[in-house]
Design goal:
With about 325 residues, this protein is α+β, with helices and mostly antiparallel strands. It has one domain: Glutamine Phosphoribosylpyrophosphate, subunit 1, domain 1 (4-Layer Sandwich), CATH 3.60.20.30. Helices cover about 30% and strands about 25% of the residues. The chain contains ten helices and 15 strands. The strands form three sheets. A nine-stranded mixed β-sheet has the order 4-3-2-8-7-1-13-14-15. Strands 9-10-11-12 form a four-stranded antiparallel β-sheet, covered by helices on one side. A hairpin with a 7-residue loop joins strand 5 and strand 6. The longest helix is centred in the first third of the chain and has 13 residues. It is globular. Bound molecules: glycine. Glycine binds next to strand 10.
Length: about 325
């Protein structure tokens, strides 16, 4: 069988790219890279690659990781001016004895490897950063899409009790698109026709983060973990939660012990719920593929979606909650 999963609605097109790559006989590793690259070039997606929202100083800094069936992995963190950080992460994996390069060193490596320099900050992202700068309490505001399908955003305050934030941010009847917020990332998992698993994760991270902040996406075992004999898992959402819980490693280890993939995601979320710093504005979405192709997705709250495609399932968007997955109305 072949199978691909991608996080969020903005993962729908990348997931199509991934499944087509698998269909044409590409390896899981090549396919997840192609899917992730597709999102990195999509400037409508404001949490990944070019078009991603900048940090507090107005600079776009990217994090990414990639991992193959055999446990080889590469990652980069705090990278400026290179759009395809997932490809740079893969080059770290394939051409260096290291797992992770960060900041200037990662940028120098990308330059030496011939990656093209790009200005990552789009006019739209710059204008939202300027609006954020004008907010009186800017450290505690987050973005939410104002209307389904538009590129208009509203600022919401995120430091209030869970119930209040929940009611305002996740209003019953609000569309999925409105519930997407400033913090998403793309994670792609794939299984190829030879049964090999691979995963990729790439992001501009938390919008308006402190300069120098690195999230979970480039941290092996937090944002991404693959053991081809067992499972592949990827995480999206508020990276600090998954970094403290090592969520993707946790999921793969539970699957290794015989726990069903969906149950493993639920237990990983239970662990995150015990985090004393969890507040009502924070989201976490998890996806897993077991080595036999059984897959699942779960999230702390409604609002998370994933795209899934296989040789028997056309690319389909699913609404995910803490204990369910349902085909989305789109
Ligand atoms: N999950 C992406 C981040 O927190 O940076």
């Amino acid at each position: 069988m072949i199978l691909s999963l991608s996080t969020w609605k903005h993962g729908f097109h990348p997931n199509q790219v991934t499944i087509e790559a698998l269909n044409s006989g590409k390896s899981a590793l090549d396919a997840v890279e192609l899917g992730a690259r597709d999102c990195e070039s999509d400037i409508a997606c404001m949490s990944v690659g070019r078009g991603g929202l900048p940090d507090a100083t107005g600079e776009v800094t990217l994090d990414a990781s990639i991992m193959d069936h055999d446990g080889n992995c590469g990652s980069v963190a705090f990278v400026r001016n290179y759009e395809h950080v997932i490809a740079v992460a893969r080059r770290v994996m394939e051409k260096t004895p290291h797992v992770m390069l960060a900041g200037e060193g990662a940028e120098q490596f990308a330059e030496r490897e011939g990656f093209e320099k790009t200005d990552l900050l789009t006019e739209k992202a710059k204008s939202l950063w300027e609006q954020w700068m004008a907010q009186p309490d800017k450290l505690h505001v987050r973005l939410r899409r104002a209307e389904e399908g538009t590129q208009e955003y509203v600022f919401v305050h995120g430091d209030e009790p869970e119930e209040l934030v929940w009611r305002r941010e996740y209003t019953p009847g609000a569309t999925q698109g409105q519930q997407e917020n400033s913090h998403d990332t793309i994670g792609v998992l794939a299984m190829d026709s030879a049964g090999r698993l691979a995963g990729a994760c790439t992001t501009s991270g938390l919008a308006f983060k402190l300069h120098g902040r690195v999230g979970d996406s480039p941290i092996i075992g937090a944002g991404l973990y693959v053991d081809g004999r067992v499972a592949a898992a990827v995480a999206t959402g508020d990276g600090e939660l998954m970094m403290r819980a090592c969520s993707t490693f946790h999921i793969v280890e539970m699957v290794r012990q015989g726990i069903e993939p969906a149950e493993a995601c639920e237990r990983a979320l239970e662990r995150i719920r015990q985090d004393k710093r969890l507040t009502g504005d924070k989201q976490c979405g998890l996806m897993v593929i077991r080595a036999d192709g059984v897959w699942a997705g779960r999230s702390l709250r409604p609002g998370f979606q994933l795209a899934a495609a296989s040789d028997v399932l056309p690319n389909t968007l699913f609404d995910i909650t803490a204990n369910s997955m349902e085909k989305a109305r789109f």
